[in-house]
Design goal:
binds zinc ion, two-stranded antiparallel ribbon, single chain
Length: about 70
């Protein structure tokens, strides 16, 4: 079981810590997997029109809004 890199809380596979709200893992693999699962459900066309950095920023914004 991995732990949050920010607050050291147990992390049950969440990409974002349920305790502190920060990204629980800094691994690139986690980000890519999240993009394949969550982002992949949406429009591929929308994704392709953005750079990777822009897409990550947008995802972070969506996450922050959702859990605000
Ligand atoms: Zn945390």
């Amino acid at each position: 079981m991995s732990k949050c890199v920010h607050c050291d809380a147990n992390n049950k596979g969440w990409f974002y810590c349920r305790s502190c709200g920060e990204k629980a893992s800094v691994s690139k693999f986690s980000t890519n997997m999240w993009m394949r699962t969550e982002r992949g459900k949406r429009s591929d066309i929308e994704f392709r029109t953005q750079t990777i950095d822009e897409s990550v920023d947008e995802m972070n914004k969506e996450r922050n809004t959702r859990y605000a």
